[in-house]
Amino acid sequence: MNTTMPTEISLEALTAGDRAEFARLVDAYSSPIYRLGLRMLGNPQDAEDVLQNTFLNVLTHVSEFEGRSSLATWLYRIAANEALMLLRKKKPEVNLDDFEAADEADDLLPTQFVDWSAVPEDQLLSGEGKAALDGAIETLPEPLRLVFLLRDVEGLSIRETAEALNLTETNVKTRLLRARMFLREQLSVYYGERLRSER
Amino acid sequence: MMTEHVHKDCASLLGSLSEYIDGGLNPELCHEIEKHLEGCENCRVVLNTTKRTIDLVHAPVEKPDLPEDVRARLFKRLNLDDYLKPK
After folding, report:
1. Which domain holds residue B31?
2. pTM of the model
3. Does some domain include residue B3?
4. Which of A175, A24, A127 is nearest to B83 (CA)?
5. What ipTM was assigned to the predicted interfaces of this complex?
6. Is residue B24 part of a domain?
């Protein structure tokens, strides 16, 4: 992906307080930010809060934006922080600060070795297959899910993901690996059962 | 099966799997991995199913767009009502 502005948003106009330009920015980024909120918090009301708080924050601080990262990365950074703040409030039992655990790669050893890679794509992307994938993403531990969503779903680069989440690139790579292995494992259980029942 | 015994080479491959799939490893490491894959069926399965998992995430399925009522409330909250045109 691209973190270039999809519709050539002018930073100059934004920082000068051009409201029409701000409306264009909102339209360009509200869908991915709403999706991120939905995937992180799990319900539309919280996703809407993340969305509104993100753009209220952007509106307040856009004049201070120094361009050290791209505008898109900065937006994702604000959105990720809003999502994490709301998660802390709504689910205090979730330990989002357990970075050590999130960055240990020792527990990613696979246990499922069913080869379902030849299952045709139309089956994998059918309603049921899609639900299995969505269900697996929902069960990803939050610190891994956030990295996975920015990198693999929204398509930020490793560097952009690191900038947006204030992590090192090494941490991003480790979390991404763990997230992908986690999802592979879950899908292998699901497709393993299906392949066995078809025999 | 690799469940009971994970070979050192398997563990090393797993640690580099993501970067290998994303094409971020140097040719020498890629060669080592490919050599290991030739003789390790379980690692081949893990590689193929991990690639497939990522393909599924990237598949061009319809991504849910922002609901119109959510968009309208957002524009109102930002005092941008005047700029709320149909998309």
Report:
1. 8-82
2. 0.89
3. no
4. A24
5. 0.87
6. yes
